[in-house]
Amino acid sequence: MKTKSKKGFTLVEMIIVVTIIGILVAILIPTWSYFITQARLSTQNNNSRVIFNAAQSECIKYKFRDRELNKEIEMLEKRKTKETGEKLAATNAKIEEDKEKLYFGTTSDDFYYYWDGKKGYACDASLNSANKSAALDEAFGKAVNNKVETPEEVVYKIHIKNYQVLSVVCAKNDKDRTLGSYPEQRSKKSSTAIKGFSFADAEHTVKTPTT
Question: Count of CB atoms within 10 A of residue 158's CB?
């Protein structure tokens, strides 16, 4: 009784299979990487939009508040001409107190707010504190905090001018090149990360008083 001999793969067949697998991997890996990048960009773009709206709401709130403060300061300045002694001193003190509350428009109409998902720093383009009050940092932090789910390391760069949010750039961390943004919606990686800012040394870099 004859037994059937088992056939195996020949060396040529094995080479062909391995070659086909190699070609498929070479095609799929870049494609898979592309889809992952696009998913991350989409998330960063959406997060930027949410933060943009939250920051703009805060700007509008301060715009109306600052308008009333300016009216009060103007009224107090006129009152000073009729006052002397303790009344004049009290009026001057109230004027200085109201000026302290003017976070926008008095020291720098054009500034950036960097936020890490928990705390933030208002600063100028050179990352100086731009004479902004710590209360501004806290106010914006409250406005944008808990608006989006973020990883442990995240950074938002919010550009504000004359009570208007001009743009928001979002990254997983300050070295990430997968930047999302709003109103511009990014569709590819940036050539650079968010430059010149690290929360690791923010206390030293950003909050240094300007001269």
Answer: 27
